[in-house]
Write a structure and sequence with these properties.
67 residues, alpha+beta, three-stranded antiparallel sheet, globular
Length: 67
């Protein structure tokens, strides 16, 4: 694997991001509040395809404990 950066195959887990949300739209069920769009696929995939770089707005969700 010569010439590839370490982030080339890095996948962003939208489900762990505080900006990710599920919409009521059956055609576009996944959304990103940081970028302000809805899509049929995970927003991080759309960002990667559009910009060529991994999502830079990923922010890990804070765990809210049960106690």
């Amino acid at each position: 694997m010569i010439g590839k950066s370490k982030t080339f195959d890095t996948r962003i887990n939208c489900y762990a991001c505080k900006h990710f949300y599920v919409t009521w739209d059956p055609q576009l069920p996944r959304g990103c509040r940081a970028f302000g769009f809805k899509s049929a696929t995970l927003p991080s995939i759309v960002v990667k395809q559009s910009s060529g770089t991994p999502c830079m707005k990923f922010a890990k969700k804070e765990n809210k404990g049960n106690g």
